[in-house]
Amino acid sequence: MDIEKILGVSFESGKHGIKGEHRSKINGNIKKSLDFDRTFNRGNDNPWDYLLESNDAYPFVEVHPAKSGGNLDEVFSKLKWMRDWIIKHKNYKELRKEKSRFIWLHTGGFNIQYTPRDPKVRALSSAKIKFPPQGVVDCDRLEYFTLQQILNI
């Protein structure tokens, strides 16, 4: 099913739904984009920044600092908000079948010091959150999963 119909919104063509300062961080065959935060944030909500259409998948992108462990907690909080939002969506059954990925693009340097055994690092991996250390992603090179697989819904 068409993601625009599922969500009841219209995307921008190409990268036009992405703020100018973030466009260079997102590469690949981006057919459409949506400023998800601007579209669905109702004040105190905590959605991810963007939703893209790329190669028949719909990655969510969060552009967020990575300077402390607190930033990890903020990204996990945003992922929980997204999970709850998807479960409550009127087209949940269709939405959960869509192929997607959650991508965290860091800003302002990468200063989190952790090891592969760190529970938060393992949580990033098990949540299937892609965290490219260079802060740039190529959507054509990602492995995608259904939202059901990613969010256990």
Structure keywords:
9 strands; two-stranded parallel ribbon; 153 residues; 6 helices; alpha/beta
Task: Give a quick summary of the entry.
The chain is of the alpha/beta class and 153 residues long.
- Class by SSE composition: alpha/beta
Q: What is the CA-atom radius of gyration, in angstroms?
A: 15 Å
Query: How many individual helices?
Result: 6
Main pleated-sheet profile:
7 strands, mixed
In N-to-C order, the SSE pattern is HEEEHEEHHEHEEEH
Range of helix content: 25-40%
Describe this structure in words.
The chain has six helices and nine strands, in the order αβββαββααβαβββα. The chain is globular. It has helices at 3-7, 36-40, 69-88, 92-95, 119-126, 147-151, and strands spanning 12-13, 26-27, 30-35, 50-54, 58-66, 99-110, 129-130, 137-138, 145-146. 30% of the residues are buried. The mean pLDDT is 89. The strands form two sheets. Strands 1, 3, 4, 5, 6, 7 and 9 form a seven-stranded mixed β-sheet that branches. Strands 2-8 form a two-stranded parallel ribbon. The chain has one domain. It is of the alpha/beta class and 153 residues long.
